[in-house]
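Exercise: predict the fold of this chain.
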Amino acid sequence: MNFTLQEYSTRLENVKKRMSDRGLDLLILTDPSNMNYLTGYDGWSFYVPQGVIVSLDKEEPMWFGRKQDSNGARITTYLKDENILGYPENLIQSPPSHPYDYIANYIHENKWANKSIGVEMDSYYYTAENHDRLVKKCPNAKFKDAHLLVNWIRFIKSDSEIAYMRDGAKLVHAGMQTAYNEIKPGVRQSVVAGKIQNTLLGGNEEIQIGGEYSGLNIILASGVSASASHLTPTDKKFKENEGTIIELGGVKNRYHCALSRTVYIGKPDKKTNDTLQITNEGVERAIESTRPGNTCHDVAVAFWNVLEKYGLEKESRCGYSIGLGYPPDWGEHTLSIRKNDMTVLQPNVTFHLMAGMWMDTWGLELSESIRVTENGCELFCNFPRKLHLI
C-alpha cells in the first residue's frame, strides 16, 4: 500500500461524514481515482464496470469488479477478502446480461434496496446503462447524484500525497529536459515522444526513480498544430521556423505533476516572442496572487489583468486542480482558475496553472504545478519559462 492504514481510515471517516451530511446511506464510486483514494486499488481494469461501495453500516468499503481482477484488489488494497467482490465472466460484454445486475442483486442481499444511494452521475466510468440497470432493479431506492463528493475531500493533500507529487515533479522536469535535448529539425515527433516517455517512466541517472503512465498522453504539436491544445505526437518531422508546444506529466503512485513549455526551431517572429513574454508576466502575477485566503477568482484576475493590459484574449480557464488521476485526464475536477470561481485556497491545495495561448494558426504554452503553502505558494518544478530556441 502507498499510504498507512491510518490515512485510509481518516479518508473513509471523512467520506462517511459527508455522506451522512447529504443523507446518503450508500455510495457507489466508479471514478478510479476515488476508488484508489479510499482503498488503494490500482489496475488497468477501468474499461469494464468496476467500483467501490461505501456503506454507513459497514466498517470497510467493498471493491467490485471483474473476477479475474480480484487478485489485483487483494494485492493493492487493505480490504478483507469478504469485501472483494468479483462478478463472473459471463457478464462481461454479453447482452442482455450486465455486471450491474450483479451489483443490484448484492444491494438487495444486503437490504439496501430501499436506501438512499449516491452515484457519480458525471463520472466518465458510470454509464447510462449502469444507472438504468440499478434504477430498474432497485425501484424503491432513492438515487442521488454524489459526483465530486470524494473529489472535494481530496481537495487538501496530505504530506504523503505532496511527497509523491514532488517525485512526479522530478520526473516531469527530467522529461522536459529530454524534450529540449531531442527536438531537432528533421526528427520525427514520435521518436522524441518515445524518448520522453522513457524518461517519464524510467527516470534517469540523476534522479534514480521510476514513474507510471499518465492520465494524459504526451502533448507534442508543432506549427499550425500548436494552435490546438490537445494534439498528440505523430510521424511529422520537426521543421525550421516552427514553434512546438510540449505538455507532460510526471506520475508517482498515481499522483501527477504537470509541466508545459514551448520551443522554437530557428528565429521566432515578434508575435511569438511578445506573446510568450506577456504570458510569462501573467503567470508571475498569478503565482504572486496564490496564497491562503485568496480565491481562484483572485488568481485568475491577476493573470487576465496582464493579458488585458497588452490587448491579448484567452477564453479558456488558466488552471485546475491536480493530483491523483487516471486516464483520460489528470485533473481532479474541483477548483478552476477562472473568474468567478470563489473557491478559497488553503495550504496543501494543488493545481496546474495552465497558461496556454492557442491562436488561429499557432500557439504556445507555459504552465506550472503549484502547491499552496502557509504563507504563499511553492512551484513543484524549477524549469526555465523563457522560449527555448533550437
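Check your answer against the key: The first helix runs from residue 5 to 21.
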